[in-house]
Amino acid sequence: MDAGPGLNFLASHRERLLISVLGPISIPETVRNEILHKANCDRRFEPARRVLQKLLPKYVDVLSDEVTADLAVTIQRMCG
Questions:
Q1: How far, in Å, are 11, 18, 52, 61, 78 from residue 21 at the CA level?
Q2: DSSP code per residue over 33-62
Q3: Burial readout 7-44 (b: 16 or more C-beta within 10 A, e: otherwise)
Q4: Phi/psi at 24 (5° precision)
Q5: 43-70 pLDDT, tens per residue?
Q6: Do 7 and 38 touch, CB atoms closer than 8 A?
Q7: Around Cβ 77, how many Cβ atoms within 10 Å?
Q8: Cα dihedral sign for 5, 10, 12, 16?
Q9: What is the pLDDT of residue 72?
Q10: Which of 22, 27, 48, 49 could form a disulfide with 10 if both were Cys (CB 3.0 to 4.6 A apart)?
């Protein structure tokens, strides 16, 4: 999930709809950080922070942004 849709679903308290359609989701650390930053800076998105924290880790898995050896090999294989 990207930050934009995440902010909209979480800030509008539509997390149950999101999870019922998609099931548990994964987001990169960068997306988590963008959601939290926007929630802290813009009152419209303030609820997103609380909702996201409530969903971690059962429904939202935060993936590391660090490049691992396995990821590097896979990218090299795909990109040539």
A1: 17, 5, 17, 16, 30
A2: HHHHHHHHH-GGGHHHHHHHHHHTTTTEEE
A3: bebbbeeebeebbeeeeeeebeeebbebbbebbeeeee
A4: -60, 140
A5: 999 999 999 999 999 999 999 998 888 8
A6: yes
A7: 8
A8: positive
A9: 86
A10: 48
Which of 29, 26, 28 has the alpha carbon at shortest distance from 57?
26
Cβ–Cβ under 8 Å, residues 63 and 29:
yes
Model pTM greater than 0.85?
no
Type of residue at 16: R
- Model confidence pLDDT, tens digit, residues 6-42: 999 999 999 999 999 999 999 999 999 999 999 999 9
